[in-house]
Amino acid sequence: MCQLLGMNCNVPTDICFSFAGFQARGGVTDHHRDGWGIAFFEGRGVRVFLDPQPSANSQIAELVRRYPIRSLNVIAHIRKATQGEVKLENTHPFQRELWGQYWIFAHNGNLLDYAPGFDGRFVPVGSTDSEAAFCDILQCLAAEFPDGPPSPQALHAALRRLAIRIGAHGPFNFLLSNGERLFAHCSTRLTYIIRKAPFAVAHLADQDVSVDFSQLTTPEDRVAVIATTPLTDNETWHAIAPGTLLTFRHGAPEALGDTATIAGGSEAEAGSV
Amino acid sequence: MCQLLGMNCNVPTDICFSFAGFQARGGVTDHHRDGWGIAFFEGRGVRVFLDPQPSANSQIAELVRRYPIRSLNVIAHIRKATQGEVKLENTHPFQRELWGQYWIFAHNGNLLDYAPGFDGRFVPVGSTDSEAAFCDILQCLAAEFPDGPPSPQALHAALRRLAIRIGAHGPFNFLLSNGERLFAHCSTRLTYIIRKAPFAVAHLADQDVSVDFSQLTTPEDRVAVIATTPLTDNETWHAIAPGTLLTFRHGAPEALGDTATIAGGSEAEAGSV
């Protein structure tokens, strides 16, 4: 299985601290050695850094860790291959364009007996179940909303239906973003934290590194960090209930009308942090 | 206007030497300061590095210059903005997927009174004439060949027709690749060189840097480098005749049946190097 990391903020923020801990899981503190990638939205544009090498000794990961790219939405992934060879085309996150927006997707899980039909609008380039699921999602969104982006409520509802259908094939934890919102679906395991004033010192779980966010932020800043497992060992992370799709915007989960759960649980912690 | 750099090889080759000279044009030896980008195909996958900062003092460009990524097809671009603000979403090269292949596009020129209609299959994210032309091309290819990639001859012919139509709006030098072939269209200015055995020493025109390719290659290696203007000052570069679309494969222009020119010239130098 893989590791997911996402960030959604109300002001452009760099992810250097969180990425430092995450990067260590790609071959140092954990066994996710089959490549890694990270996507930064900046305005309408997106930058994706991909590397089929382990992140723990990747020169590109070193650059990302040291070079502060400020972004409202970030999605990163460290791969432990289940389906698809260790190749660049199978490295998450994946990118496509829909409605004149770039979309970014990364998946943790393993979908079995899953062979969606593609009409040609979005076709997988690699051989992972994950990219197939991404193309499936976008194909369905394009078909349901051919005239452009729907309301946030309609988009959330459509993604929940798709998560239920595809998630029937196996673990389907994913992060998805169009640069405006970050969608986080927990199928088996996904956690998040909201950092906001008063900011404190955070200490990484995977490396002996601390950062005092009060020195780096303004009182209005709000940052949501979503990860497969908590990245710090002195903060309270919230487990997202399996079967839940959260939509993050401006650094917090967004209430989108019907926020009941997908599969019978409760919408975890939304608005309570 | 902008600067283009492309590379097409018969064995995976790094572009560090050529990129060193190219990078200097982004703010040191030339005035193309409005961002830069480079795409490396590796197998079916592609890595795109984008930076809205000038390449001459970009940390990401430094990484690309020093970190040998071996690729059969590379497209790079340094931007001097004509249309569209200096923003990430307007930074070349652009990426889309068609027929389960990634496509990469970069443009040097300026298209006026050009407003193609988009049916939703490919929609520009940014505001450049270049990305609009890329979406126009892919939309037309998808419509003409809905069942998948056509023959190389049919693809070449379709691209020539599109280059004529779009090029009627202004200078339309471009590089386009699907990872298998690299298409180079000269509208006003584009040059190329084929490096093959016996390899010699090359010296950059933009920096006092030389490389002895005989030390880095095998006798079977063949590398085509395409650039807006020659990158070295001790080799013979071939000017591509305006109105010509060349298809490069395995490090050489490919004869694709009808290789007469687009606009009355002659297919420049193909096979003569």
Descriptive terms for the model:
disordered C terminus; alpha+beta; seven-stranded antiparallel beta sheet; Ntn_hydrolases_N (chains A, B); Glutamine Phosphoribosylpyrophosphate, subunit 1, domain 1; Class II glutamine amidotransferase (chains A, B); homodimer; 273 residues; six-stranded antiparallel beta sheet; EgtC-like (chains A, B); 4 helices
Average predicted confidence as pLDDT of chain A: 89
Rough outline of chain A: globular
What pattern of helices and strands is seen along the backbone of chain A? EHEEHEEEHHEEEEEEEEE
Kindly report the spatial arrangement of strands forming the biggest sheet of chain A: 3-2-4-1-12-9-13
Tell me which CATH architecture of chain A applies here: 4-Layer Sandwich
Count of helical regions of chain A: 4
Strand tally of chain A is: 15
